[in-house]
Amino acid sequence: MNSSNPHGPTPERESGTGSGVPDPVSIEAALEMVVQVTAAYRRQLHTERQALAPDQERLAALAESVREAQVDQRALEEADDAEIARIAARYEAAFKDLSGQ
Q1: Which residues, other chains included, contact 34 with Cβ-Cβ below 8 Å and sequence gap of 6+?
Q2: Would you list the DSSP string of the chain?
Q3: What angle do CA 22, 66, 52 make, to 5 degrees?
Q4: Cα–Cα–Cα angle for 29, 30, 32, nearest 5°?
Q5: How far apart are CA 75 and CA 9, in angstroms?
Q6: Is this structure's pTM higher than 0.90?
Q7: CA distances (Å), 6 to each of 21, 27, 44, 64, 70, in order?
Q8: pLDDT (tens digit, 0 to 9) for every residue of the chain, 101 residues total?
Q9: CB within 8 Å of 19: residues ≥ 6 apart
Q10: How far, rounded to the nearest angstrom, does the alpha carbon of residue 72 sit from its chain's CA centroid?
């Protein structure tokens, strides 16, 4: 996700070893996190579109976030373990942000 993310930057989670390397995660878990975040962005898009005066910048930022999530979802298909962990950490942080945790 880039700086156009309406939820701000999402830092990588570091492993408990202090190595700066994200914890290992399964591709299925990473995919599920991307799917959940994408669904949340789509719900926000729908809500914003239904507003009396939709915020065009927010609509654009949310649409870009959905596109980025789709790219990351496709990238998981050929990602190595480190990239899978980075994607999962990014979407775990985004999910927590979106759900107010």
Answers
A1: 69, 72, 73, 76, 87, 91
A2: --TT-TT---PPPPPTTSSSPPPP--HHHHHHHHHHHHHHHHHHHHHHHHSSS--HHHHHHHHHHHHHHHHHHHHGGG--HHHHHHHHHHHHHHHHHHTT-
A3: 135
A4: 65
A5: 20
A6: no
A7: 26, 26, 11, 9, 16
A8: 433 444 433 333 344 445 555 567 899 999 999 999 999 999 999 999 999 999 999 999 999 999 999 999 999 999 999 999 999 999 999 999 998 86
A9: none
A10: 8
Please give the single-letter amino acid code of residue 86. R
Q: At residue 69, what is the residue type?
A: A
